[in-house]
Amino acid sequence: MAPDPLKPEQLPTVCGEIVAEYSAEVVKLGDLLFELLSEALGLRSNYLKDLDCGRGIQMVCHYYPACPQPELTLGATKHADNDFITVLLQDHIGGLQVLHQGKWIDVPPLPEALVINIGDFLQLISNDKVLANSRGPRVSVACLFGTYLFPNPRKYGPIEELLSAENPAKYRETTTAEYVCCGNDKGLDGSSTLLQFKL
């Protein structure tokens, strides 16, 4: 949906207009989130935006019909998002879980709230200062901020202003395309692609 958003007529008639409108609003939200994250890291407010962290957005919409035998089904394999951040809109059914101290914990949906997930790539460039970690039909819409869907030769590595003798770089530089290719080659095996980029 960014940097070159689809036109409503390129999308299914039932949702084209609302998807285009929602995407434009998520872009604005992403700009604000990257400003806040930059400031929280002690950087100037446009730092992450100037790194193109919010330039590309992929929207993934899921519809999970009600299942008559849910005990026989599996959800998505545990995974980390290979992006900077993910903005998740989930319906009232829920279904999102996070792994915390070896246990899966439900993330209850809150009316009119979005879930913001930190992606592996933000963990990489922050040098670990920012860490990533049914009853009826369910709908979720994930907007993944990353630059891997369009040619981007920029190499990303730990931000120099966050490094010191006490806090040396923990990851090697990489492009978002290389990072995602490594993740795709590895598959959803429950381990983080970040491990392949550790120094």
Automatic annotation (TrEMBL):
It comes from the Eukaryota. GO terms for molecular function: dioxygenase activity; metal ion binding. Residues 55-148 form the Fe2OG dioxygenase domain. PROSITE patterns: FE2OG_OXY. Belongs to the iron/ascorbate-dependent oxidoreductase family. PANTHER family: AMINOCYCLOPROPANECARBOXYLATE OXIDASE, OXIDOREDUCTASE, 2OG-FE II OXYGENASE FAMILY PROTEIN. This is Fe2OG dioxygenase domain-containing protein.
